[in-house]
């Protein structure tokens, strides 16, 4: 890691205006110039948290992101939010990532009121992942740059085998989302969640690309533990001969499941194959 151990630097402009400048740690696998989906979706989650802070105790149960176009590393970014609906029990908040007059990504969050109720809870027999300290270190093999998202993340292989479309790993960021700002549990989940279809890769990454145009994360609780806590990801991928696919990722912490991530995939043959 370099001295800049964060994904974005935050710069204040006019009153109420924030601009975000990406570091190389946001770089994705498919282009030297564009970002991985994790850090930008975490920026949108941060905006939702701040917009919703005044509404009292509510829990983000879902965030759905549309990744509209590649997000450049070099361009300054801004986030715009809008409250779509504020009911007694459910709020919906939209956030958009923009650069200049271009909209790069949008997210919609569903927030549900928190209320103590004597509701029965159920265990579904989900197999627990081996603890991170019992798992070997793993590096994503399809990044071709010295510095990028892959160097900003620590990954340990928990189960399965890379390339089979069914693998489990523990993952956590080595750096904060914003320089000088503590990363929240929700933001950490979003930094990691977009890596699901990388964990669950089902294709030869030297011959195929699999870009996800969206990400939807459903949560029933947040991870416990501090900022350095691991997120468990058990990812399964399905590919079709029609040029698209899907990845479903079970999200968990050391205490068990906490949600699920879903991604569509645009599958393409690499040019030199």
TrEMBL record:
Q: Which residues form the Acyl-CoA thioesterase-like N-terminal HotDog domain?
A: 27-110
Can you name this protein? Answer: Thioesterase-like superfamily protein
Top-level taxon of origin: Bacteria
Give the species. Answer: Enhygromyxa salina
By its UniProt entry, which Pfam families does this protein fall under? 4HBT_3, 4HBT_3C
Q: Where is the Acyl-CoA thioesterase-like C-terminal domain?
A: 132-264
Q: What taxonomic ancestry is recorded?
A: Bacteria, Pseudomonadati, Myxococcota, Polyangia, Nannocystales
């Amino acid at each position: 890691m370099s001295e800049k151990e964060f994904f974005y630097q935050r710069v204040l402009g006019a009153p109420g205006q924030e601009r975000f400048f990406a570091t190389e740690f946001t770089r994705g696998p498919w282009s030297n110039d564009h970002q991985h989906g994790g850090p930008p979706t975490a920026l949108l989650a941060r905006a939702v948290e701040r917009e919703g802070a005044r509404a009292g105790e509510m829990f983000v149960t879902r965030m759905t992101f549309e990744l509209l176009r590649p997000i450049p590393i070099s361009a300054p970014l801004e986030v715009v939010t809008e409250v779509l609906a504020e009911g007694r029990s459910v709020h919906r908040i939209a956030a958009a990532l923009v650069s200049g007059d271009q909209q790069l990504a949008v997210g919609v969050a569903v927030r549900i009121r928190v209320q103590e109720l004597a509701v029965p809870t159920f265990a579904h027999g989900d197999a627990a992942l081996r603890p991170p300290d019992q798992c070997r270190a793993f590096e994503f093999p399809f990044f071709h740059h010295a510095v990028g998202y892959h160097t900003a993340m620590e990954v340990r292989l928990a189960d399965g085998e890379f390339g089979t479309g069914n693998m489990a790993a523990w993952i956590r960021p080595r750096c904060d989302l914003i320089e000088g700002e503590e990363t929240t549990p929700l933001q950490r989940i979003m930094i990691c969640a977009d890596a699901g279809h990388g964990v669950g890769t089902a294709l030869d990454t030297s011959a195929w690309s699999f870009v996800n145009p969206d990400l939807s994360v459903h949560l029933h609780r947040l991870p416990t533990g501090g900022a350095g806590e691991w997120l468990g990801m058990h990812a399964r991928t399905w590919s079709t001969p029609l040029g698209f696919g899907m990845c479903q990722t079970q999200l968990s912490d050391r205490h068990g499941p906490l949600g699920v991530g879903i991604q569509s995939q645009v599958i393409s043959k690499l040019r030199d194959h």
